[in-house]
Amino acid sequence: MIKKASKWFKSRSIAIKYFIFLFTGSLVLFGLLAWNNLQDAEQLFRKQVLTDAKVIIDRTNLYLDAYLDNVQNILLLLSTRDDLLDEGKEQEAIEVLRKYAEKNSTLYKTLYLVRADGKVMSNTQVYFDIIGNPHLSALYKQAKSSYGIMISEPYDSPLSGKTVAFILPITSKSDDEVKGMAVIEIDLIRLTNMLAQFMNTRNQTFTIVTNKNNVVNTFDASWPLYYYALLPYNTAVFPPELESSFVSRISELPVGITELNGAKGKLVAVKSGMNKLGWYFIAFIEDGYFYQNIISLYNNYKTAAFVWVVILLISTYMMSRYVTYPVRTLVAKMDRVRDMEVLPSISVQREDEIGRLAKSYNAMMERIHHLLTETKEMEMRKNQYELKMLQSQIAPHFLYNTLACISSLAKQHKTDAVRDTIRSLVGLLSFSFDKSSEFVTLEDELEGLKMYTHIQKVRYGDKFNIEMDVAPDALSCKILKLTLQPLVENAIFHGLAPQKVQGLIRIRAFVRRGKLMIIIRDNGLGMSSLQLESVFSERRKAPSKHRFTGIGIMNVQERIRLHFGAEYGLRIASVPEVGTLIRIELPELSFKE
């Protein structure tokens, strides 16, 4: 990776290197200063928020302690009225409880006086008589074992909803016997709402747990849902409750500041010590909140960074425009030398070293252009000469064998056969020596092939037959001269002639999807896979003296691809003792196009 980066950097221009050095150095310096200042600001803000949270928690604990004192005062006042537990005083007791409840309606939900015989008086006596409260019997048992005010764990009361009970046993003034108990069920929703005024926002919330890991604060449906988004609530029940695993975790937190994961991400927890109620107050602050209030500072740094980058870009542009522009122009012109058709020159308007370099470049380009032109012309003449030579090669031995066959036919007085053979030979030579064009129609190519095969049948007799199946629309298609003859010649000499049985060559031509398809199949000796691989290397071998021309399969392939492109050409498949199949793919062209 480092080597690649180093190689890339070395290949860049002076302007880019200058820009990278200047930009990187300035960016690192600016980034370090910005990061340091942002970190300091974040730490200061975090410290301030946590300090404020501690102050709020301390004040909340003072409020809860005062709340406890208020409840204790009410319970102590009720304990002085042990006469309210006497029989016949039930209505008076109910009225006293209602009076206390009305004066402290923001704090208490339900007040009870419970006699030893189980009789219950309440400030909401009608509702109690209908609904009842099954928890009072358990609370009475706890009160008998206590000598002072006792605070229960949170529970669901039929009259008060989720609540916490403050209990005080009441004894007789005459014999110190327990006559009953006074119970106050507090309004946890109101208590939670009062505390939420200090802590509940989009970014911070709180919870209160007892020393037995029970949650005191309760769910209030009137609150916005985002109040509950920070902590993991179990929504499968109503009202939703904090997940038990999360309650266990926060109960085990040490007093002070701790980090833990909440429902939306990392939280900062500030846990107070146990207050007089035996409760722990825990404030939760979203970790991202510490960054939100420094957004303005962050935006200032972004603006400064943007201005700095713009200044860097402008200064780099000016430097490259007035200092490195001529060098980059020269480099750009030299890069275009890859295009051999257009060799660009540079206008010289300077007299310094760069001007002299531009003049030398222009002189070099003129010389290269001249050499390229000469080389290209020589190459074209050479290619044309080679194609003409290949097309006009006629093996002397072929002529000797053909003339010997004609002489033999003449001695046998086979005048018609002599006439047909001479006509075929003249037509074949005329077709081969025609220099008017490299291209002929498929129909003309097949006529020349028929003349060639007629001569070979005179020589070999009934050694082979040839069949042609050509679609009418394929006859007018353009094809390179001497494309089929070398392939048929190869099939005769290597596939059919060595056999002792009569062979067959089938030629089929048709047009499909804009392509001219020609298939040549023989039932000759075939080729092995090794022989098949060496077919396209025959161009490097000396041509056989028995062949009509020196054009081989490799030459046919190269000529097709030279004129029509690499997607066209020959495909050969062969199986030993079965035969060979050659498929030729050419574009569908006509002389009208």
Verbal overview:
- With 593 residues, this protein is an alpha+beta fold.
- It is 50% helix and 19% strand.
- The protein contains 16 helices and 20 strands.
- It has helices at residues 2-10, 14-79, 90-103, 125-131, 135-144, 188-199, 244-251, 289-292, 295-335, 353-392, 396-411, 415-433, 442-460, 485-496, 529-533, 553-564; strands at 108-115, 120-122, 150-151, 155-157, 161-163, 165-171, 178-186, 204-210, 233-234, 241-242, 256-261, 266-271, 279-286, 439-441, 464-470, 478-480, 503-512, 515-522, 569-575, 579-587.
- A five-stranded antiparallel β-sheet has the order 2-1-7-6-3, sandwiched between helices. A five-stranded mixed β-sheet has the order 15-17-18-20-19.
- A hairpin with a 6-residue loop joins β6 (165-171) and β7.
- α2 (14-79) runs antiparallel to α9, α11 runs antiparallel to α12 (415-433) and α12 packs across α13 (442-460).
- The longest helix has 66 residues, at 14-79.
- The two termini are 54 Å apart.
- The model has no long low-confidence stretch (mean pLDDT 79).
